[in-house]
Amino acid sequence: EPSAIGTAAVTVVNPPPPVAIAISPTATSVRVGRTRQFTATVTNTSNTSVTWKVNGITGGNSTVGTISTAGLYRAPNTAGAATVTAVSNADPTKTANAAVTITLR
Predict the structure, then answer these.
(1) Which residues in the chain show pLDDT less than 70?
(2) What b/e string do you get for 27-49 counting C-beta neighbours within 10 Å, with b at 16 or more?
(3) Sheet with 65-67: strands ordered across
(4) Contact between residue 33 and residue 103 where contact means Cβ atoms under 8 Å apart
């Protein structure tokens, strides 16, 4: 019987680590009409940009507060609570949330 001899090259490629995102601060109080700076840290990707949301609304609105593309949150004129979210643009399934309490004083 003929015998077959061959070689095969196998390259094992480790998958890249998943994109991770963190927000700071994770919880804060802001007086009505005042601002608070949030920062988002995105790792394991060269695209570290994020989309900012307030209560799921990109950029927020006058009811829940607004947030700039740089992460500067401005509280609305009424007390309450809001959630600031940073969404990784490299992997939109990766998000980080911060709890905001809006106080009158």
Answers:
(1) 1
(2) eeebebeeebebebebeebeeee
(3) 35-37, 72-74, 65-67, 60-61
(4) no
Calculate the dihedral angle through the C-alpha atoms of 38, 63, 55, 81, rounding to the nearest 10 degrees: 70
Distance of CA 52 to the CA centre of its chain: 7
Three-state SS at 44 = coil
pTM: 0.86
Alpha carbon distance 39, 24 (integer Å): 5
Tokens of residue 49, six digits: 């940009």
* DSSP bridge pairs for 20: 43
